[in-house]
Amino acid sequence: MANFIFYGAFMFDAPGSMNVFTIALATSFFLYPVPIILGNVLFWVNKKKADIKKLVTYTILSSSGPVFVVLFFMLLELACNGKFSCN
Question: How many domains would you assign to the chain?
């Protein structure tokens, strides 16, 4: 988590870096562990009594943290050529 905070602070260092893609990427960095922990805990608690659809939902929830980080990296690469300062 300390690495996310460290890198997140330098994402807004460049002039013009306060764009929607950089803010979304920083938000996905800071909220990265929340869906992973929540999905894993819900899966573990309900694994005996829940049906398979609920368990698949919990698995998708726990994989949404990495998916959002990769998605916003790709959007930043496509929209701003990989730079945090997008004009």
Answer: 1
In a domain, 53, yes or no: yes
**Structural domain contains residue 75:** yes
| Whole-number Cα distances in Å, 19 to 32, 49, 53, 57, 66 | 20, 45, 37, 32, 21
Tell me the whole-structure pTM to 2 decimals: 0.78
pLDDT digits (tens, 9 = 90+) for 16-71: 778 888 888 888 888 888 999 999 999 999 988 888 999 999 999 999 999 999 99
User: Is residue 22 included in any domain, yes or no?
Assistant: yes
